Amino acid sequence: MTIGLGIDTSFDDTAIAVVRGGKEILANLTVSQFTDHQEFGGIVPERASRRHLEMLFPLAERALLTAGMGLMDIDYVAVAVEPGLVGSLLIGVTFAKSLALALDRPLTAVNHLKAHVYAGRMDHPDVPYPHLSLLISGANTLLIDVADEDDMTVIGGTIDDAVGECLDKTGRTLGLPLPAGPHLEVLAKTGDPKKIRLPRPMLSSGDFDFSFSGLKTAVLYMMRDRPDTSRADVAAALLSSASTVLVEKTMSAAKKLDRRSVVVVGGVAANLQIREAFAKRAKSDDIDVRFPSKALCTDNAAMIAGLGYVRYAKGIYSPIDQPVRANVSWKRAIPPRVQPPT
Ligand code: KG4
Fold it and tell me: Is the distance from the beta carbon of residue 14 to the nearest atom of ligand 1 less than 6 Å?
């Protein structure tokens, strides 16, 4: 059966995976750089590129060892080519091109965000096309109408912070380590979501856009004015507010587009409270809501190898001068309120 090597260096995670037949994950390894950049309060692009360069070779060796495969067993090399930090992308893509050339195997270029969306179908192949996807990560909050693996139309997105960014920044206010999402999840389990009322931004805006920067600021002011507030109650209220908005908008969009199937993907989709809120609403709305396994939610290269396999199987190979792109322009149902950077 076909063996694919997936590579992702689009941002601050170095990820390599070995996948059989586009679905069976034999190895899925990710090295996070979060602590490498902590002293700067954000990702330093040059440092990120250098860390990718240091990590790629040992990680690829370990992935092949874990999968019990050798280099010659690889049938295709899939790599994330967009969107992301250009320097970081170039490291991964150059590595992938070199391997493809040396092994004389096809190269398949993959869009990192489309791979996140595809991750839902990797775990749940019975999810039909078209379906609605909510992509929630550290950098994105997008509602996407998915016609197939390539044909996707954005119907809404955040006008400021992504939901993961809001969780990470609020976590910092609460003194949690980064990335704060998983720590907030644990903390929220012991808190009361009803004790504190936080805003539910744009809940009734009548469209499918989101805003999360006000939520972050509300917690900042609350902790400044009332520093003794229970952090567990804040975490619970924060996740409750975020879930309410995400669930409400997603389910209204599904109804408006007449989609009976919703897939929630991206790092924040690993969150327990968000999963529970969706599950509850799915039942009452009679809409099928699925999540990929947690390993396929956060940044990973198995999803790159998975989507790369679809291209490989169709014979869509990428040229050896395949470029990388920092930004991608989406097909949109309506123009975004805020123009994305060019
Ligand atoms: O998709 P991802 O791994 O990276 C990108 O941003 O592309 O998403 C990372 C985000 C971070 O904001 C992190 O805090 C959040 O996903 N996250 C979670 C959980 N696990 C990761 N947020 C809430 N609960 C979690 N269990």
Answer: no
